Amino acid sequence: MKNHSQKLAAIFLMAATLFLFSCDKKSLKSSKGPLPEKSVSGSVLNVSIEAAAEPLDQQTAVFATSFELIGNMIDGLMQMADDGSVQKAICKEETVSSDGLHYTFKLRDDVYWSNGEQVTAHDFVYGWQRAIDPATNSEYAFMISDIAQIKNATAIQAGQMEPNQLGVRAVDDFTFEVELQVPVSYFDQLLYFCTFYPANQAFVEKCGDKYATSPQTCLANGAFILTEYSMNGKSISYIKNTAYYDASKVKLAGLHYEVINDGNEALRKYQSGQLDFVELSGDTVEKMKSDPDFRPVDSGFLYYITYNFDDKNFANKNLRRAFSLAIDRERVVNEMADGSAAAYAAIPRGFAFSQSGSDFTPKGVEFPESCSYNPAQAKVFFEAAVRELGTRRFNLELLTADGETQVIASNSIKNQIESLFPEVQITIKAVPKSERRKIMSSGAFQFGLNNWGPDYADPMTYLAMWVTGNDNNQGNYFNPTYNALIASCTDGDLCTKISERWSALKKAEGMIMEDAVISPIYQKCNANLIKSGVRNIAFHAVAINRIYKTTSK
After folding, report:
1. 181 and 491 in contact (C-beta within 8 Å)?
2. Contact in structure between 450 and 433 (CB atoms under 8 Å)
3. In angstroms, rounded to a whole number, what is the distance separating the alpha carbons of residues 329 and 319?
4. How confident is the model at residue 84 (pLDDT cuts 50, 70, 90)?
5. C-alpha span between 249 and 415 (Å, rounded)
6. Is 372 left (phi over 0), alpha (psi -120 to 50) or beta?
7. CA–CA distance, 447 with 440 (Å, rounded to integer)
8. 140 alpha-carbon distance from chain centroid
9. Percent of the chain with pLDDT over 90
10. 506 φ, ψ to 5°?
11. Comparing C-alpha atoms, which of 154, 149, 443, 466 is closest to residue 304?
């Protein structure tokens, strides 16, 4: 372990030196701010992670792994405390108008990008305008418009206004103002999500389409600086940012990730001392669950089947309902054996709570008519689908990401459906998760195992996905009544009526289940092994799932 750490320290030193020769060399030479130290002594945390196959661009990233990697190196106005609450980051002081429409953020004046340039209100203006600009093609632009309800965002997204007309402005270098269309009760919770992070305009434009694809094309203002990264690469590394305004709280000298999708490989590297923290999958979970280092953590991710409404077979509601009732979700999670829980609702448990503290999704089978294992009723729906579609034979393709647990779950789903309906033949198509998303977004699929993790602690983070036109409505569900109900909860008459809005959101979830838009399958639990000397990894179900700012080793 000692030799491995020394080797990593050398890598960090060399990479940190290379890092300084970034895209914006001119601004680096003229910078008046502190620059990060080239080497840092101390412990490096070695972690396993799934593949990261996209630029680490705060405005365009879509995967949870990318959110973690970006969160290591960039702070926004707010950040998530270890207990899940919202705490100030670059924001020093916040003022909200009495009508809830105007926010004024006073920024810290001791925050610098890793090229020495100061982080200012102009960086937030540019970052948010960049996110909503149709030219950026951000799949999370809806967070600016539909969720945050920032003034003019919807019109900009539709190409009817210019991005510079977004309801944000820099009053001066350290005063950032935001104007909303309607009050948003959870607005502060959005501000620790990557889409709302600042961006340095000169640096981004200098890097062009190479931005955030390598250490040399990334800027940091957070706890760590990226020193090793390439899309589809096998390792990712960071060094502590000694110029970080909160550097005294950062205990690690760096982070080193190994990209691993196989549970056995992760376990081998953990047991050999190469890794301090791994996520297990497959039969390694059962093997290690009694180990003192074993620590299961609820990830907050819901895994569900998405049906393509444009497919001639799955346009049929009875076929969708038949498949949903044919799946024994308890059997699926037992075969996965990683501690995940069967899911019986479109909103996972444990992340969204009412003012009285009630979970939006209580334990148990909340929608038994849609999610309970009911072979007899499934056959009734299947026979109805056969009559309506005019065929008894179905050759179908189930799309999934190629992660070990996803493949196990998909095979369980396939076997159960085929066993109950011999007329159905299912082929599993397992591809890298980035490819799975591209295929689904293009509509070139029949049905697939999908997933979503909450971006903020409100049911809307899920329910907004099935609104017509949302980039995440990959099954192309269309229901004007549903659209109107969700609209009433975002910018309509219910947006400020807390209890009525809560009831309306529950009604919207019921519509998703009744129409069999999706079939919830399981709520993911991460089966972790963590070395006993590692302390204070912050786990969250919302937004960034793992934070290492105060972690020690």
Report:
1. yes
2. no
3. 18
4. confident
5. 50
6. beta
7. 9
8. 10
9. 84
10. -65, -40
11. 466
- Tell me the CA distances in angstroms from 34 to 16, 94, 254, 355, one per residue in order: 15, 26, 19, 44
* CA separation for the pair 138, 131 (Å, rounded): 6
CA distance 229 to 2: 23
CB 526 within 8 A of CB 327: no
- Contact criterion met (CB below 8 Å) for 424 and 418: yes
Going through 464-517 in order, the beta strands assigned E by DSSP cover none
Confidence (pLDDT) at 21? 36
Highest mean pLDDT among 6-15, 21-30, 519-528: 519-528
Contact in structure between 16 and 39 (CB atoms under 8 Å):
yes
Position 83 pLDDT exceeds 90: no
Q: What is the pLDDT of residue 80?
A: 87
Beta strands in 265-422 (DSSP E): 277-280, 294-307, 341-342, 394-401
The length of the chain is 553
Under DSSP, the state recorded for 348 is -
Burial classification of residue 135, based on how many CB atoms lie within 10 Å of its CB (0-12 exposed, 13-18 middle, 19 or more buried) = exposed
Q: What one-character DSSP code corresponds to residue 332?
A: H
CB count in 10 Å sphere of residue 65: 21
- 538: closest CA among 264, 192, 274? 192
Angle CA(203)–CA(208)–CA(209) in degrees, nearest 5?
Answer: 135
Query: Which residue shows structure tokens 């001392």?
Result: 273
User: In this structure, what token pair is assigned to residue 485?
Assistant: 């109900």
Question: What are 93-118's pLDDT values in tens digits?
Answer: 999 999 999 999 999 999 999 999 99
Put simply, whether the predicted model's pTM sits higher than 0.90 gets the answer: no
CB atoms under 10 Å from CB of 442, counted, come to 9
**Tokens matching residue 263:** 């549970």
Nearest to 114 by CA among 15, 251, 6: 15
SS (H, E, C) 79-102: EECCCCCEEECCEEEEEECCCCCE
Confidence grade of residue 50 (pLDDT, cut at 50, 70, 90): confident
In sequence order, the 6+-apart residues with CB closer than 8 A to the CB of 282 are 262, 263, 264, 337, 404, 405, 408
Distance CA 126, CA 310 (A): 38
Neighbours of 363 (CB within 10 A): 10
Number of continuous H segments (helices) and E segments (strands) in the chain = 19, 19
Q: Pairing relation of β-strands 254-259 and 44-49?
A: parallel
In angstroms, rounded to a whole number, what is the distance separating the alpha carbons of residues 544 and 547?
A: 7
Compute how many other C-beta atoms are within 10 angstroms of the C-beta atom of residue 529. 24
pLDDT for the residue numbered 1: 43
Give yes or no for a contact between 286 and 433, defined as CB atoms under 8 angstroms apart: no
